[in-house]
């Protein structure tokens, strides 16, 4: 098997273009999409060719570089104005994932502080994007190690339930929640993973299971509605999920279905962990009530592939995320350590 921690990278800068793994075609096809313009990058993020909050941040950073390269004038002030517009375009693609906004703001700050000519500015932007990517990879590995310290001690090896996809495909590599799972497997502490299929986009069934199979991690796919049953049967020792935005009090927005998992975990005394980099924490928001929730096309619900599975005339509601209250979260695992939700402010 191939080690995903070293060979699967969803976003790669390649000779003035960005090469993305087309995650909409996995697991049946392992294809790449070349992105050479801001508009193409915005489409790739919006259509979920690239997805996962950290990976979106990396992709957006390179999108800013593409915007700088596309400018053919000779006015630095004009280029800075153009970059503001590029950033605004990219920010409109996925409103919930805060890493997107964080990365764009970081790139704009880099551009604004540059004192060189246009060539130096472009070079510095590319270096900044590469640094964001490298930092995320190192951050995920640190999250994986810190996660080991809070996993429950059980007589046998651990069985962990996860939701959506939080692995190499969702980050610069290695993963957040799946990174903790990967670390547990490497340490000999993991018996296997239960992966929710994660309706309606099926990221658990299509992506998480694929990653686990590639690396030889035992994985069992279940429907989202089976989690409570599995906990009732004592099949699950812990739940680990990722996050798209965490507020100052520890409330966490993640893929739809996460909140119900947290409620069920509480009922069955199963520890519920969130694994995310500190860049996912939005300290400007006090609680989860302030998080904007993206709503996506209803076709994701009533259609599977080209087949319609619901009656014509029915109405549909398709929020992409829900918010899990901090009170249901055992700990938040970051690159600086695992803390109780209310202790996040100490890491700021």
- Specify the oligomeric state: single chain
CATH architecture descriptor text of the largest domain: 3-Layer(aba) Sandwich
Question: What's the CATH topology label of the largest domain?
Answer: Rossmann fold
Kindly, what is the distance between the CA atoms of the first and last residues, rounded to a whole number of angstroms? Answer: 39 Å
CATH superfamily of the largest domain: Translation initiation factor eif-2b, domain 2
Q: Please give the number of β-strands.
A: 16
Radius of gyration: 20 Å
Shape: globular
Strand content range: 15-25%
Helicity, in percent? 25-40%
- Count of individual helical segments: 11
Strand order of the largest sheet: 6-5-4-7-10-15-16
Layout of helices and strands, plus pairs?
Layout lengths: L3 H4 L3 E4 L2 E5 L10 E4 L2 H9 L6 H18 L5 H16 L6 H16 L4 H31 L9 E5 L14 H10 L3 E7 L6 H13 L3 E4 L4 H6 L5 E4 L3 E3 L4 E4 L2 H10 L4 E4 L5 E2 L16 H4 E2 L2 E2 L12 E4 L6 E4 L2 E3 L9
Parallel strand pairs: 4-5, 4-7, 5-6, 7-10, 8-11, 10-15
Antiparallel strand pairs: 1-2, 2-3, 8-9, 9-14, 12-13, 15-16
Helix pairs in contact: 2-3, 3-4, 3-5, 3-6, 4-5, 5-6, 6-7
Provide an overview of this structure.
The structure is a single chain. With 348 residues, this protein is of the alpha/beta class. The protein folds into two domains: 4-141, Four Helix Bundle (Hemerythrin (Met), subunit A) (Up-down Bundle), CATH 1.20.120.420; 145-347, Translation initiation factor eif-2b, domain 2 (Rossmann fold). The protein is 39% helix and 18% strand. It contains eleven helices and 16 strands. It has helices at residues 4-7, 38-46, 53-70, 76-91, 98-113, 118-148, 177-186, 203-215, 227-232, 258-267, 299-302, and strands spanning 11-14, 17-21, 32-35, 158-162, 190-196, 219-222, 238-241, 245-247, 252-255, 272-275, 281-282, 303-304, 307-308, 321-324, 331-334, 337-339. The strands form four sheets. Strands 6-5-4-7-10-15-16 form a seven-stranded mixed beta sheet, sandwiched between helices. A four-stranded mixed beta sheet has the order 11-8-9-14, with helices on one face. A hairpin with a 2-residue loop joins strand 1 and strand 2. Helix 4 runs antiparallel to helix 5 (98-113). The model is unreliable at 1-6 (pLDDT under 50).
């Amino acid at each position: 098997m191939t080690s995903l921690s070293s060979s699967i990278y969803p976003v790669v800068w390649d000779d003035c273009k960005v090469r993305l793994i087309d995650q909409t075609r996995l697991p049946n096809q392992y294809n790449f999409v070349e992105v050479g313009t801001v508009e193409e990058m915005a489409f790739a993020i919006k259509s979920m060719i690239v997805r996962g909050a950290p990976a979106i941040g990396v992709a957006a950073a390179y999108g800013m570089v593409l915007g700088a390269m596309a400018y053919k004038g000779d006015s630095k002030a004009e280029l800075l104005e153009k970059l503001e517009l590029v950033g605004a375009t990219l920010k409109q693609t996925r409103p919930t994932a805060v890493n997107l906004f964080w990365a764009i703001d970081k790139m704009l700050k880099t551009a604004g502080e540059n004192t060189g000519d246009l060539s130096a500015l472009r070079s510095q932007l590319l270096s900044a994007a590469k640094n964001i990517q490298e930092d995320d990879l190192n951050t995920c590995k640190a999250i994986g190690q810190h996660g080991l310290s809070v996993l429950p001690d059980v007589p046998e090896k651990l069985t962990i339930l996860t939701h959506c996809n939080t692995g190499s495909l969702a980050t610069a590599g290695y993963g957040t929640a799946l990174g903790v799972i990967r670390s547990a497997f490497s340490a000999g502490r993991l018996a296997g993973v239960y992966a929710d299929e994660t309706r309606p986009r099926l990221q658990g069934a299509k992506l998480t299971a694929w990653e686990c199979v590639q690396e030889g991690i035992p994985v069992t796919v279940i429907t989202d509605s089976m989690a409570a049953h599995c906990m009732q049967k004592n099949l699950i020792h812990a739940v680990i999920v990722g996050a798209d935005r965490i507020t100052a009090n520890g409330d966490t927005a993640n893929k739809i279905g996460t909140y119900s998992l947290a409620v069920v975990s509480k009922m069955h005394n199963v520890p519920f962990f969130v694994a995310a980099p500190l860049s996912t924490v939005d300290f400007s928001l006090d609680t989860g009530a302030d998080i904007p929730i993206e709503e996506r096309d209803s076709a994701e619900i009533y259609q599977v592939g080209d087949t319609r599975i619901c009656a014509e005339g029915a109405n549909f509601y398709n929020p992409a995320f829900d918010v899990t209250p901090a009170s249901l979260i055992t700990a938040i695992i970051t690159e600086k350590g695992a803390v109780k939700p209310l202790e996040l402010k100490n890491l700021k």
